[in-house]
Automatic annotation (TrEMBL), chain A:
Record keyword Protein biosynthesis present: no
Classification via InterPro entries: FAD/NAD-bd_sf, HdrA-like
Protein's organism: Aquimarina aggregata
Domain of life the protein comes from: Bacteria
Keywords of this entry: 4Fe-4S, Iron, Iron-sulfur, Metal-binding, Oxidoreductase, Signal
GO molecular function, one term: metal ion binding
Name of the protein in its database record: Fumarate reductase
Signal peptide span: 1-28
Record bears the keyword Magnesium: no
From TrEMBL, chain B:
Organism whose genome encodes this protein: Aquimarina aggregata
Entry protein name: Uncharacterized protein
Organism superkingdom: Bacteria
Length: 640, 376
């Protein structure tokens, strides 16, 4: 709808356009729509006034990010940090999407490549580390607050919770505004922005903008996909409802509620196992071969019934004596969705791009979760395995920027499960940490759009190097693409040396590769602590920032898990390898002067900013890690 | 001198140990010393008390260790548990396993081990970086062979993807159980037992042994026994002169030596060592709270112009500054560095800039200052 038309048509048009469902949530009917309320009869006893104040605020930002899951948070934070005034619009009361306390999916990423993780870095790494400091108890509700803190502390970022972007206001092929209904305040916000990023999963804003999208499974021939069905169909992977149980230390009875759907496990595929059932069963899932969004409430009710049916089977079938003392401790009411709309960009990522490790010149993210395609129908198709796990990756695959902006809506980008890819590609890239990398990429790209006054497609065509360099400076990793930022003064140092070395080489710190990968060592590791590195310039430089990338053991997962797993592959605390205490010094007129120190570092990317000074040398003194006897670094950068 | 010492040590080794360090002898000549220790096995919820037998030769030297364990940890009581004896070297390296006569190991569903399976199990146990290091026992219980198993993203991935080369198909639980017995914290317990049992004479041999693990055991024992006689100190010094990778560990021991001994060794390492030994000596002196005489560092500075890198020059000047040495001889040694490559020259300039210089030296640094004003 054109913006002008919207205002002309007023309430009726808005009702027709889909605001109504939000109103229904407060048990109202269409006559109760109150965001535009000339007939409102409110008499305020306190002030003696009548009538409703304006509840149609108009706000303007550089960038509007819709959806507060991992992708949306990373997009919004990247945008804000890089200089765009940004708003993050989330339709739930908490952040985190599928990883929030409302759903409680593990925030997985490249968890296991040949027995080791290849963890995502950048903003998602910072979030997961923040959680390890702030949430030692590994509580999902506390994780909501960790994310809240992570977002609201950003000075250039506003957060709107309980707010859903329901309608795009268009001008040609450009989104001018997003109409956003805030359920808790009965306000209809008009959010104006230059760039819109839809990370909402279902992508309602993008759909109402007229962005091209598809649902269902591509046929084999369209993209020459091995694992696609012979013919295209409408099947989408389902949503799952999770639960967790608690050992009460004594036998606990269980009787199913009225809506439970009897479950017997008869005829079930053997891969429908009950391992880890105490923390939920992921194959309690219902999909759709039609309009999965429209079916969501029906399916939610079904899922609640299936969940209790399966739990009844566990508790009362006699097959699970280990469940005798268990009782349900938490039961989800909001299913975690895997698939619905996939918007079409300038490139559609497909199976072979992943399995054949296609190199993209516009690569901005990577993935490595298996091709984990769930069966059509989920628990309603029980003889099938719950997932086919078609393919396990032995190295990470690349994801291109051209799949993250709309083919036909000029200022629209997306990140998460709704990006431009096939159903089979989605079966891997839907994993949250992969989505988070996409989010950081589009958030960063949005700021380039604003700074350069260009649209996302032009970023792909003319500014992709700038985008990649900024992402890598901000600790994202791009496979097979070393950083080579010409503004980085560390690369121009006359000499770089370290106090001691136990492995790697100090010159690796300026080779542009911020992790050990593909059998190549890109680190320097001290021999004991304290340790220091020093850079010398023959000609003095003007310096205002020093940036380090320290080791956080990317081969070990750090996301919060319900089972608090703690071994070589999964850690449940702050990585012991991470640099904790350090100080920075610069030589100015022949004397070493302290620039700053950090006592309790909490991030992999360590940045010290200061007023620009002229220096001939810099040294970083490292005193302690969180437990490792040596400190390992991957990168040092210096900027004017 | 160093070579002579080594030759003597190696002759001594064969005399004292009778070649028994690595070869087995008639068991009747050996003494078995039991050690009651607590071991944490990842398959057990709590640490387990075990008896580790230290096998000593007639000279009281620990030559081997053995321990009896069960082949599997099995909560459901449905597995066949076979006693297995594991053997380690005196450095804690797994060597072999033995079964009781006519005992056989079993696979999943009562299949018996084949001959090749026994050989493969031994190879698995010898791999201290086996994939079993990272596997949960819960995964093994439910995955009896080399299945590829994965859970969905929604509850968190656990992949048990063992290559056939890494396990005995159908006997993953046995492999897992024995691997952790063979390669778990028993290894450090064995090293500790050896460091306590060996004589001082044997420690001398350990220091020079080509297997670095012996060096580590010796250093631990030297510190525990507070041994700083010249014979030990020189041996450690000679070892770290030849092996840069051991510098850090060597200095950890040397820094606890009497001050006179420590300073002598630091000087030897500075003058005779290569770049890393020189840097280690300077770094050690920088870090220890030891007063150093002016003459001591004047001697070091005499060779400053022969130091090969900026890093060495800068470290020595840092050291002189840190120890607050005020010496005309030092200044005289440093002044020629103003003619060196620029980074070294600039470092020397800023050092001299803070010193009390004679008129000719003042003239030289003023000229340097004028020439390189924009680059200082």
């Amino acid at each position: 709808m054109k913006r002008r038309d919207f205002f002309k048509k007023g309430t009726k048009a808005a009702v027709a356009a889909g605001v109504v469902p939000m109103i229904f949530t407060s048990c109202a009917n269409t006559k109760d729509i109150i965001y535009d309320k000339p007939n409102d009869k409110w008499y305020h006893l306190g002030t003696g006034k009548t009538g409703m104040p304006n509840r149609k605020p108009v706000v303007t930002y550089d960038v509007a990010v819709i959806g507060g899951g991992a992708a949306g948070i990373c997009a919004a934070v990247a945008s804000a940090r890089n200089g765009s005034k940004t708003v993050l619009v989330q339709d739930r009361p908490v952040l985190g999407g599928n990883a929030s306390s409302e759903i409680r999916v593990h925030l997985n990423g490249v968890n296991d490549i040949k027995g080791k993780a290849e963890r995502e870095t950048g903003i998602i790494e910072e979030i997961l580390l923040h959680n390890r400091f702030e949430n030692e108890q590994e509580s999902y509700p506390v994780f909501d607050y960790v994310l809240y803190d992570f977002v609201v502390r950003e000075p250039n970022l506003d957060l709107m919770l309980n707010t859903q972007a329901v309608e795009a206001v268009m001008e040609g092929d450009v989104i001018k505004s997003a109409l956003c209904w805030q359920a808790t305040t009965e306000k209809m916000f008009t959010i104006n922005a230059s760039i819109f990023i839809d990370c909402s999963g279902d992508g309602l804003l993008a759909a109402t903008a007229g962005a091209i999208y598809r649902t269902g499974r591509e046929g084999k021939t369209e993209f020459n996909e091995t694992f696609a069905p012979d013919q295209p169909d409408g099947w989408q992977m389902g949503a799952t409802l999770l639960m967790s149980s608690k050992d009460m230390g004594r036998p606990m009875k269980y009787s199913p509620p009225s809506y439970a759907i009897k479950y017997t496990h008869e005829g079930a595929h053997p891969r429908r196992h009950f391992k880890w059932f105490k923390d939920g069963i992921w194959w309690i899932e219902v999909g759709s071969n039609d309009d999965i969004i429209a079916d969501a409430e029906v399916n939610r009710h079904k899922l609640m019934g299936y969940l209790h049916g399966v739990w009844d089977y566990i508790k009362n079938s006699g097959n699970f004596p280990e469940a005798e003392n268990l009782a349900l401790d938490w039961v989800g009411s909001l299913p975690g969705r895997r698939e619905s709309r996939r918007f079409i960009g300038d490139y559609i990522v497909s199976e072979r791009d992943m399995t054949e490790h296609k190199h993209f010149e516009d690569c901005i993210a990577f993935g490595g979760w298996s091709l984990d395609e769930h069966n059509p129908g989920g628990i309603e198709n029980i003889s099938e395995p719950p997932s086919y796990f078609h393919y396990h990756f032995k190295e990470v695959y690349q994801f291109p920027f051209r799949s993250l902006y709309s083919k036909n809506i000029a200022n629209l980008m997306f990140a998460g499960r709704n990006v431009s890819q096939t159903h089979i590609a989605l079966s891997s890239s839907r994993i949250m940490a992969t989505c988070a990398l996409q989010g950081q990429a589009v958030g960063t790209a949005a700021t380039i759009c604003n700074k350069r006054n260009v649209l996302p497609r032009q970023v792909a065509q003319k500014h992709i190097n700038e985008l990649q360099e900024q992402l890598m400076r901000d600790d994202a990793f791009i496979p097979k693409r070393p950083a080579r930022d010409p503004k980085d003064l560390a690369r121009k140092a006359s000499l770089l040396f370290a106090s001691s070395t136990s492995s790697g080489d100090v010159n690796n710190l300026i080779n542009g590769m911020s992790r050990d990968i593909d059998g190549t060592i890109n680190h320097w590791k001290s021999n004991g602590l304290p340790a220091e590195i020093q850079l010398e310039w023959e000609t003095p430089i003007l310096l205002a920032a020093i940036e380090l990338k320290c080791d956080t053991n990317l081969a070990r997962n750090i996301m919060m898990r319900k089972d608090s797993r703690n071994d070589e592959l999964f850690g449940n605390s702050v990585p012991k390898e991470m640099l904790k205490t350090l100080s920075f010094e610069a030589r100015i007129n022949g004397k070493w002067q302290k620039l700053g120190n950090i006592e309790e570092n909490r991030t992999r990317l360590i940045t010290l900013k200061f007023d620009a000074i002229k220096v001939t040398a810099v040294r970083v003194k490292m005193a302690a890690t969180y437990g490792a006897k040596n400190v390992k670094l991957f990168e040092v950068r210096c900027y004017a | 001198m160093i070579n002579q010492i080594n030759i003597i040590y190696w002759c001594f080794l064969s005399l004292v140990l009778g070649g028994s360090l690595f070869t087995s002898k008639n068991p009747s000549e050996f003494l078995e010393v039991p050690h009651k220790i607590m071991i944490k096995h990842p398959g057990e919820k709590k640490p387990v008390q075990v008896i580790l037998f230290e096998i000593q030769n007639e000279a009281g030297f620990p030559v081997q260790y053995r321990m009896d364990v069960n082949s599997v940890i099995c909560l459901a009581q449905v597995c066949k548990v076979i006693p297995v004896t594991l053997y380690w070297s005196n450095t804690g390296q797994y060597q072999r396993y033995e079964l009781q006569k006519e005992a056989t190991l079993e696979k999943y569903e009562a299949d018996l081990f084949e001959t090749d399976d026994y050989v493969k199990l031994d190879a698995i146990l010898k791999n201290d970086d086996s994939p079993f290091k990272d596997v949960y026992i819960e995964d093994i219980w439910t995955v009896p062979s080399t299945l590829s198993e994965e859970v969905d993203a929604i509850s968190g991935a656990t992949i048990l993807e063992l290559d056939e080369k890494d396990t005995v198909p159908g006997a993953a639980l046995t492999c897992y159980t024995l691997w952790h017995w063979a390669n778990g914290n028993i290894v450090s317990e064995i090293k500790n037992c050896t460091s306590i049992s060996v004589s001082n004479e044997q420690l001398e041999v350990f220091i020079s042994h080509r297997d670095v693990t012996y060096f580590d055991i010796a250093l631990q024992a030297l510190q525990d026994r507070n041994l700083y006689e010249a014979i030990f100190v020189d041996a450690v010094m000679n070892r770290i002169l030849k092996n840069e990778a051991l510098l850090d560990r060597g200095f950890t021991y040397l820094e606890k030596a009497p001050i006179k001994t420590y300073l002598q060794v630091a000087s030897v390492l500075f003058f005779k060592g290569e770049k890393l030994q020189k840097l280690a000596a300077m770094r050690s002196l920088l870090e220890v709270d030891t007063k150093v005489s002016v003459a001591y560092l004047e001697e070091w500075t005499e060779v400053i112009s022969t130091l090969g890198t900026f890093q060495e020059v800068s470290a020595l000047l840092d050291l002189i500054e840190k120890k607050d040495i005020d010496s005309e001889e030092v200044n005289t040694s440093v002044t020629p560095l103003l003619q060196s490559e620029f980074l070294i020259a600039r470092r020397a300039y800023w050092f001299l800039y803070k010193q009390r210089l004679n008129p000719s030296q003042i003239k030289v640094i003023k000229a340097f200052q004028k020439k390189y004003k924009a680059r200082l």
